[in-house]
Structures are given as structure tokens and as C-alpha cells.
Specification:
Blueprint lengths: L1 E2 L2 E3 L2 E3 L6 E6 L4 E7 L3 H18 L4 H17 L1 H12 L3 H25 L3 E5 L3 E9 L2 E5 L5 H14 L3 E5 L6 H13 L6 E3 L4 H10 L5 E5 L2 H11 L5 E5 L5 E4 L5 H13 L11 E5 H17 L18 H16 L3 E4 L19 E4 L6 H4 L6 E7 L2 H8 L4 E2 L1 E5 L3 H10 L4 E4 L14 E2 L2 E2 L4 H7 L1 E9 L1
Parallel strand pairs: 1-5, 8-9, 8-11, 9-10, 11-12, 13-14, 13-19, 14-17, 16-17, 19-20
Antiparallel strand pairs: 2-3, 4-5, 6-7, 7-23, 12-22, 15-16, 18-21
Helix pairs in contact: 1-7, 2-4, 2-6, 3-4, 4-5, 9-10
The protein binds ligand TXE.
């Protein structure tokens, strides 16, 4: 069975203890590779390598850092077929999505920050004719990057690219559920000539290897994407150590559809925002709120389209919904569908585990599910499900739509559908989310700030925000 390895000090190595964990292919429900079960000793090695590498990487001319990162981006593009297939097998997502979204975006992340390194500059402030101040941005040091399983290489690179571009060195941990593409990525780093120790990848469990990264006194900043509960735990460890923290957590995003929208577009995009990647994207619009005058029409047409979605073997070309990432996660999602029924919800379609014949007969598939008739304050409408499950509810006025949209503890993203420009601005101003899409969804410009309000996180990623996170401002004042 294939053995994934850690990447420490430029070398591919096993965990010091020799321990490993089975890595499951969720579409078959069986182990297909082994992943190192690393602990604090492996993290210690990685931190020491990163510390040593920081001495040269942090002062290397930006052009050189940029060149090596660009080579890595080239190699991702060269190996897109292999990486996409690996991502699909490891996560359960469809191969077509990995080919069109995950892997191209991983290359874009690296390239975006490779060029960003060239343009990141200091500021100067002239204080009359008395002084000149210049404000340097110095890399913070060794940083920890912890990424989740839903968009494995995409989110892994989204964190490490700005850290490396800013001159930090990194100890990173991919999710233990989806370690494969980070492993393949480490081989590309070796091939591209990334100096040893600049990036270190330590695999293993969150509570063990992950916790050791968070606790390590020489790791000065932590960038984390994952569940809100884990985010709070990380903050509880890191805050008393006064570490810099960037937390990208969960969402329960409203998708607000007004009667004056382009209904066809709203339905087509809502299918995507509900079920893309099996609904396992923090940006998915899991609560669809529809103006009452078009509620029935929307619901009928939407459910009709949902029923057409093809669930099945993610490696097959025309499949639109693949497997959920793990058995535990599938059971969590099915548990929420049961809860919804107990709360009075009506299942309009789906609602069950999907049985696929052949290779995937033991896989973790859930039918795309649409639920109605729930109070907006019930648990199904308040808690993150993170699967192919959406609720649909009517509203009567703008005020009510905003109140329903803002009723959860989350505030990551929201989508608004209307052809009325004034209304679009008015609602966008009132919805408490870090990201608002109007008449679109998941339309991304990597320069824009990315992150959530309330329990959806702390800080912003993307553009200069990420480069600033991985640097400290240092002001130098020269008296003339
Ligand atoms: O993720 P975790 P889980 C949500 C989603 C999901 C729930 C739980 O609702 O059902 O979170 O998912 C590492 N110290 N999202 O439990 O635990 C872990 O190893 C350091 C939303 O699978 O948050 C992995 O690398 N690290 C989300 C990473 O944290 C720790 C994406 C994420 O795992 C750790 C994923 C610890 N103590 C889940 N404990 C999003 N925002 O996109 C765990 N980890």
C-alpha cells in the first residue's frame, strides 16, 4: 500500500515513531494508502529546519523567492491530471471538479503570491521637514499553516503561498483525511529547488501533530481553516502565547432570492452553491430564502433540477455529486437530515444515503437533499451541516429577509439575487457577512479580502491582507 511521507528539511521521511494511519478512499470506503501519525517530535524537527531556513529565505531577494514559487506553479499545471485524480480519490470529490477548480486554483494561488512578492513594498511618511519614517514589512518567522479536507490542495496552497512569498518559513499540516496532494506537492517543491526547511509538511491527527504545531513556542503565527469548534480550541491555546492568528471557520450562508431576480440564473447558480463539492464548501449557500410571491415556483423548479443531479463514482466524467469525505462526516450529515424531520421539516427530495453499485457500493454518498417548512431559528437552520443539504424558506419583506439572514452565529458569505440595483446595495449593507455576492456565487478575485464575521473567523486572507498577516510592520523614524 502506498506510504505517504512527511516533508522535513527538504527530505521525504516517515514519522520518527514509525506510526502511521490508514488513509481512506471515501468513494470505496476502504483504506488505500498510509499516512504518518506524527507527534511533537516530528514537529520539533520541522520547526528546527524551518528556523534554520528562515535565516536565508527571509533575506533572499524577492525575485529569487518568486522564481522558485513560479516553478512550483508550473509543475502543478504540468501535473494537473495526476493531481486531480489523486484529489478525487482522496476526498471523494468529482474528478471534473478537481480538474476545473481545485488544481488550477492551487497553481493560481502559488503564482498569485509569487508575483505578489515582487510588488510588496514599504511605505514612507514624511513628517514635514523634520523627519522621514519608513515602514518595513518584515516576515514574522516560522509560521504554522493548518488546512482542512474539503478543498485540500486549494486551501493548503492558499495559506502557504503568501507565507513563503512574504519570507516566512512554514510548518504545515494538511488534514489527516486528505493528505495525498500535499505529499505530491512536496515532491514538486523538491523538483523546483525550494531550499530545504523553507516548507515542512508534518502529517497526522489534529489533536496530536496539529496541537503540537499550535503549542510550539517558536511558531509565531498560525493560519487555520477548519471547523469553528476546532478554531476556538486553537485560539484558546495560541492566544495566551500571544501568537498572531488567522482563523477561517465555518458558515451557514444565506442565499436571498428576490422576486425581481433573473430566476433562471438564480436557480442554476443555486444548484451550484448548494451542491458543488457535495456541499462541503464553507461558502455554500445552505439556507435559501425566497420572496413569497415566487416561493412555490422557485421550489418546484429548483427541486426538479436537484433531482436531475447525477450522484456516483467521482472518477466518471458526467458525475456531479461525489462521495462525502468520511463515514463519520456522512453520518453527521444524515444525522442532521433526521434532526430536520424531528424539527418538522419536509423532505422535498433526497434525504437518504445514496447507494451506488459497482466499485463505489461501500462509499459515503448522500442524496442531494432539499428541506422546507422549518422555522429559521431551529437547529437545522442554525448549525453548519457541510453536506449536500439545503433548506428553503419564504420571506415577505426586505426586513424579514435580513433578519433571517443575520439570525445565525456565523457571518462568512451571503448571496443576493435581484435585478434592482438599489435593493442589492441596501441588502448588501445590512447582511453581516465578510463576503457578499450579488447575482453570482464563488466568483473570486484573489486580490479581495476573504474571511468571515462573528463565529466564521478572525482576520482576512487574500491579496495584501495575507502578506500583511505573515509580516510585522516595523517603523523606522529618521530625524532630519
Ligand atoms: O474539521 P477540523 P473536522 C466544518 C464542518 C465540519 C466540521 C468539523 O462543519 O463538519 O468543521 O470538521 C486540524 N490543533 N469544517 O472535524 O477538526 C485537522 O487535523 C490543531 C469547515 O473534520 O476543523 C485538520 O487539519 N489542528 C471547514 C484541520 O484542523 C487541529 C472545513 C481541520 O479539521 C486540531 C472543514 C487541534 N487541536 C470543516 N484539531 C471550512 N471552514 O471550510 C483538528 N485540527
Amino acid at each position: 500500500m502506498l506510504k505517504i511521507q512527511n516533508y522535513i528539511d527538504g527530505k521525504l521521511v516517515d514519522a520518527i515513531s514509525g506510526a502511521s494511519l490508514p488513509n481512506i478512499d471515501p468513494s470505496e470506503g476502504r483504506a488505500y494508502s498510509m499516512v504518518p501519525d506524527s507527534d511533537a517530535k516530528d514537529v520539533e524537527l520541522a520547526v528546527q529546519a524551518a528556523k534554520e531556513a528562515f535565516l536565508t529565505w527571509s533575506i533572499m531577494p524577492a525575485e529569487k523567492r518568486s522564481a522558485v514559487l513560479s516553478r512550483i506553479a508550473d509543475f502543478i499545471e504540468r501535473d494537473i491530471q495526476e493531481l486531480a485524480r489523486a484529489e478525487s480519490i482522496d476526498n471523494g470529490k468529482t474528478l471534473s471538479l478537481a480538474l476545473s477548480l481545485d488544481i488550477p486554483r492551487a497553481a493560481s494561488n502559488i503564482r498569485f503570491y509569487a508575483t505578489g512578492a515582487l510588488h510588496f513594498s514599504s511605505e514612507a511618511h514624511i513628517t514635514g521637514n523634520e523627519a522621514v519614517n519608513y515602514t518595513l514589512r518584515v516576515p514574522t518567522g516560522v509560521v504554522g499553516c493548518i488546512s482542512p479536507w474539503n478543498l485540500p490542495l486549494y486551501l493548503f496552497t492558499w495559506k502557504i503561498a503568501p507565507a513563503l512569498a512574504a519570507g516566512c518559513t512554514v510548518v504545515a499540516k494538511p488534514s489527516e483525511l486528505t493528505p495525498m496532494t500535499a505529499y505530491l506537492f512536496s515532491k514538486l517543491c523538491v523538483e523546483a529547488g525550494l531550499p530545504p526547511g523553507v516548507l515542512n509538511i508534518v502529517n497526522g491527527l489534529g489533536g496530536k501533530a496539529g496541537q503540537a504545531i499550535i503549542e510550539h513556542p517558536e511558531i509565531v503565527s498560525i493560519s487555520f481553516t477548519g471547523g469553528t469548534v476546532t478554531g476556538k480550541k486553537i485560539a484558546a491555546t495560541a492566544a495566551p502565547m500571544l501568537k498572531k492568528l488567522s482563523l477561517e471557520l465555518g458558515g451557514k450562508n444565506p442565499n436571498i432570492i428576490f422576486a425581481d431576480c433573473d430566476l433562471k440564473k438564480a436557480i442554476n447558480t443555486s444548484i451550484q452553491s448548494s451542491f458543488l463539492n457535495q456541499g462541503e464548501i464553507c461558502l455554500c449557500g445552505s439556507r435559501i430564502l425566497v420572496e413569497r410571491s415566487i416561493y412555490e415556483q422557485f421550489l418546484n423548479e429548483f427541486v426538479l433540477e436537484v433531482k436531475k443531479l447525477r450522484v456516483g463514482d467521482p472518477l466518471e466524467q458526467d458525475i456531479q455529486v461525489g462521495a462525502l469525505v468520511s463515514e463519520a462526516h456522512m453520518n453527521k450529515v444524515l444525522g442532521y437530515i433526521e434532526l430536520a424531520q424531528n424539527e418538522g421539516g419536509v423532505i422535498r427530495c433526497g434525504g437518504k444515503r445514496a447507494k451506488i453499485s459497482g466499485r463505489c457500493e461501500d462509499g459515503y454518498f448522500v442524496q442531494p437533499t432539499v428541506i422546507t417548512d422549518l422555522d429559521y431559528k431551529c437547529r437545522t437552520n442554525q448549525e453548519e451541516i457541510f453536506g449536500p443539504v439545503v433548506t428553503v424558506a419564504p420571506f415577505d419583506s426586505e426586513e424579514q429577509a435580513v433578519a433571517m439572514a443575520n439570525s445565525t452565529t456565523y457571518g462568512l458569505a451571503a448571496t443576493i439575487w435581484t435585478e434592482n440595483l438599489s435593493r442589492a446595495h441596501r441588502i448588501a449593507a445590512q447582511v453581516k457577512s465578510g463576503i457578499i455576492w450579488i447575482n453570482c456565487w464563488l466568483f473570486r478575485d484573489l486580490r479581495t479580502p476573504f474571511g468571515g464575521m462573528k463565529q466564521s473567523g478572525v482576520g482576512r486572507e487574500g491579496g495584501w491582507d495575507a502578506m500583511k498577516f505573515f509580516t510585522e510592520a516595523k517603523n523606522v523614524c529618521i530625524k532630519i
